[in-house]
Amino acid sequence: MKATEPRTLAPPGRRTAHVTAVERVGAYHVIRALDSGGPADPQPGQFYMLSSAEGWGGGADERPYLPRAFSYARVREGELSFLLEVVGPGTARLAELRPGEGLALVGPLGVGWRPPREGTRPLLVGGGIGAAPLVCLEEELGPEAAVLLGFRSAAHAEAAALFAGPPALATDDGSAGRQALVTDLLREELDIDPGATVFACGPPAMLEAVRAVCAEVGVPAQLALESGMACGFGACFGCVVATRDGYIRLCVDGPVLDAEQLA
Ligand code: FES
């Protein structure tokens, strides 16, 4: 993991990767695609703008114009994996891709995770699809990283199998792991040993709860934030968030921010 990263490592153009597999993992899909034209060493926490390479347009059989931002979950010899939840027409059409089809992408983009504070253990906290950028982070950090995951249900919790783990699990309905919030697991871990750096990705309410717990205990936290992203490389200002130092574009100065930066 690099101690300091440039703002973006992306080559400027859109290129086509080739889909090698689309697999069902419980309530999610994992899309794998060979990106032979791209950098082989994206940094955990960076993201790609994804769209189908063919058939984009506004019609019922076509794919929506705007690409979608996805943190990559894993990279192996140029093959990228992305975790996908179908939530609308754009993600539904990405899930319909088949091996051999093209996946248009731009990336890797943004600034990912930084190393843990010296002398602390890494504690990875993911909610739902936010587990994705923690998969490659766990690989990078090795067995000293502890992983805490929260999901809606057992079907969503099947994504926990992507981790070397085994991760500690919480679900909203108690159908897998404990019936609890992942922030409950976090608080218990920090009560036992506050000598940690927290890396968190998930929905906004979860990240706010992580930020509050870490601030209370005095633990450094890095948060991978979500925002609507239209371009992914700083041109549209659609991803602006407020920080203590003013507004920033999440796609070039994030998506990973230190919790203490947030306004
Ligand atoms: Fe366009 Fe960030 S997504 S500026």
How does this model look, in words?
By secondary structure, the protein is of the alpha/beta class. It folds into two domains: 15-109, Beta Barrel (Elongation Factor Tu (Ef-tu), domain 3); 121-261, 3-Layer(aba) Sandwich (Rossmann fold). Helix content is 19%, strand content 32%. The protein is built from six helices and 16 strands. The chain has helices at 89-95, 132-141, 154-157, 182-192, 204-217, 250-253, and strands at 15-25, 28-34, 47-52, 68-71, 74-76, 79-84, 102-109, 121-127, 146-151, 168-171, 178-179, 196-201, 221-224, 240-243, 246-249, 256-258. The strands form three sheets. The protein has a seven-stranded antiparallel β-sheet with strand order 4-3-7-1-2-6-5. Strands 11-10-9-8-12-13-16 form a seven-stranded mixed β-sheet, sandwiched between helices. Strands 14-15 form a two-stranded antiparallel ribbon. The longest helix has 14 residues, at 204-217. It is globular. It starts with 14 loop residues before the first strand and ends in a 5-residue tail after the last strand. The model has no long low-confidence stretch (mean pLDDT 90). FE2/S2 (inorganic) cluster (FES) is lined by residues 229-232, 234-239, 249, 251.
**Structural classification:** alpha/beta
The CATH homologous superfamily of the largest domain corresponds to Nucleotide-binding domain of ferredoxin-NADP reductase (FNR) module
Q: What is the CATH level 1 assignment of the largest domain? A: Alpha Beta
CATH topology description of the largest domain: Rossmann fold
Main sheet record? 7 strands, antiparallel
**Measured on Cα atoms, how large is the radius of gyration?**
18 Å
| Total number of helices | 6
